[in-house]
Amino acid sequence: xxxxxxxxxxxxxxxxxxxxxxxxxxxxxxxxxxxxxxxxxxxxxxxxxxxxxxxxxxxxxxxxxxxxxxxxxxxxxxxxxxxxxxxxxxxxxxxxxxxxxxxxxxxxxxxxxxxxxxxxxxxxxxxxxxxxxxxxxxxxxxxxxxxxxxxxxxxxxxxxxxxxxxxxx
Length: 169
Ligand code: SME
Known about the structure:
Layout: H1 13-28, H2 34-48, E1 54-61, E2 68-76, E3 82-84, H3 88-96, E4 100-102, E5 120-128, E6 131-140, H4 148-164
The structure holds methionine sulfoxide (SME).
């Protein structure tokens, strides 16, 4: 199987996210390994989405008070490794178990700058059978890059990812 990782223009976000979702389904359909799927999903998204500079996963490690997000597979510049639940955009999305869209990271108190070029960000929680697995984080060098269509599209991506991926025991 070969994947061309097309770079759509996303002029029609609804239809391009539908195409992206179909490609992700095809990419993950025969594989359930969490790390393998996160690696391929981040590569597909990084190639397909215009105007992004970081795409990747943070997974929840530890439990109770010790629970924190630890960086997983990603594309982009090296990133901060550990983020406390409740801190930064990623930790806020994890704590709320809800997508957080930040139009301007300079205006988000507590934003954690990994790549100084990032100006806007969207973080989608990964929920499997009611359990928080981690988050999907996408950054852009442009202010207000992510809108409602991106939120819907990336939440669908997150759903496809958790549906196909099994946490190793
Ligand atoms: N900006 C994120 C940290 C992760 S990096 O963007 C890859 C945050 O504030 O949680």
